[in-house]
Specification:
Glutaconate Coenzyme A-transferase, 424 residues, alpha/beta, 2 domains, six-stranded mixed beta sheet, eight-stranded parallel beta sheet
């Protein structure tokens, strides 16, 4: 590992027409990206690939269109309004399959831009808060450039990177841009209570970030022997782990361990996972593999949606034609939970948008992407109740979903159902 005292020399191996895999989420190497911004003048047609990142995605701005192309595996808020599907584009792929996309050279990676904890006495850094697709990136890239941060927690699992694997490194003491939690609404609180009633003791949980997962976790304080095998987890899980509600004792895979592939939260979360052998981060092709997920019994997968149509099709990645987020790991865990003994795949959403538009729709909006197909959808929860679509016909599904739509929308949904589906 060659340690540099300035960003220019750290990044000088990056040349035009290269492809760079960028560490994502809390592990976004913003110091290295700032250095790349200063060197944009000498670069053309550099492809940046990543999951959602934190900070200023300057490279997606119009002024850098000749310098950088952006390929998003998942679209974050800093990119969403900059998508033009030309030089700033989206690549649909299950999170579980992205590492193989990289390792197979289907997406060739010249440089891995990583953010790591300082090396231990044996020379091992860790990928810190995000192993996800970066394990494949580190193993596949020709050049590895590391931002070595004294503030990055040392996280156990499969994120170890020896200094001999790193070509260039820049040391820093960078504070993290931590996510902030929004107040939980009455609707979200009610959804959390309904889902908590579906969760049995001894279950293994998958939950994402956001108010509904937090509302669920807030309602689980009376449960026993829960486990976590999740794409990610945030601060909401810490209280349950510390109180013993989550002890991971009933899991068939990695008993006693809280398993995820990346983290997103506050400084409290960073402190909690630092050198904590009971928390491990593993690659997305393992954690999100439906076959691996299904090895645990009573897997409860809690995922959100932008809209659900009356046949059970779930749109979670786009608002019409406009990509809002991505496929992510929803289908990985919906399928894994459905194959788990006693498992419950759950789609949770408020009945209406903040503007009062029904999220239970007769038909998905024009251009909306189906992330979870009608054949994969089981439980759907709104603040007005829960239905299980498994084993129901289209007509039975429509009737059930209308009953958990907002009361003011039910009559219109029923009329639309008969007009669109039933008229000859």
């Amino acid at each position: 590992m060659k340690v540099h005292d300035n960003l220019y020399s750290t990044l000088e191996s990056i040349q035009s027409n290269m492809s760079i895999l960028v560490h994502g989420s809390m592990a976004t190497p913003t110091v290295l990206l700032d250095g790349l911004k200063e060197q944009a003048w000498r670069l053309e047609n550099v492809e940046l690939l990543h999951l959602h990142t934190c900070g200023d995605a300057f490279y997606a701005n119009e002024q850098y269109k000749n310098n950088f192309r952006v390929t998003n595996f998942f679209v974050g808020g800093n990119i969403r309004k900059k998508l033009n599907y030309q030089n700033v584009d989206y690549l649909p792929c299950f999170l579980s399959e992205i590492p193989n996309l990289i390792k197979s050279k289907n997406k060739k990676i010249d440089v891995a831009l990583i953010h790591v904890s300082p090396p231990d006495r044996f020379g091992y850094c860790t990928l810190g808060t995000s192993v996800d697709i970066m394990r494949a990136g580190v193993d596949s890239a020709d050049i590895i450039i590391a931002q070595v941060n004294s503030k990055m927690p040392r996280v156990h699992g499969d994120g170890y990177v020896h200094v001999d694997q790193i070509d260039h490194a820049f040391y820093c003491d960078q504070e993290f841009e931590c996510s902030s939690e929004l107040p939980i609404s009455k609707e979200e609180e009610q959804i959390g209570k309904i889902i908590a009633e579906l969760i049995e003791d001894d279950s293994t949980l998958q939950m994402g970030i956001g108010n509904i997962p937090n509302a669920v976790l807030n309602s689980l304080k009376g449960h026993k022997n829960l486990g976590i095998h999740s794409e990610m987890f945030a601060d909401g899980a810490i209280d349950l782990i510390e109180s013993g509600v989550v002890n991971n004792t009933k899991k068939n895979t990695h008993p006693g361990k809280t398993v995820a592939t990346f983290l997103n939260g506050s400084q409290r979360l960073l402190d909690f996972v630092d050198d904590n052998p009971a928390t491990i981060l593993l690659p997305a092709n393992y954690v999100n593999n439906p076959g691996i997920i299904a090895r645990n019994d009573k897997v409860v997968a809690i995922n959100s949606a932008l809209e659900v149509d009356l046949s059970g099709q779930v749109c979670a990645d786009s608002l019409g034609h406009k990509i809002f987020s991505g496929v992510g790991g929803q289908m990985d865990f919906i399928r894994g939970a459905s194959l788990s003994k006693g498992g419950k795949p759950i789609i949770a959403l408020p009945s209406r948008t903040k503007k009062g538009v029904s999220k239970i729709t007769c038909s998905l909006n024009l251009g909306a992407g189906v992330v979870t197909t009608r054949a994969h959808t089981h439980y759907v929860v709104t603040e007005f109740g829960v239905v299980n679509l498994y084993g129901k016909t289209l007509h039975e599904r429509a009737k059930a979903l209308i009953q958990i739509a907002h009361p003011e929308d039910r009559e219109g949904l029923m009329k639309n159902w008969y007009e669109i589906y039933c008229k000859k």
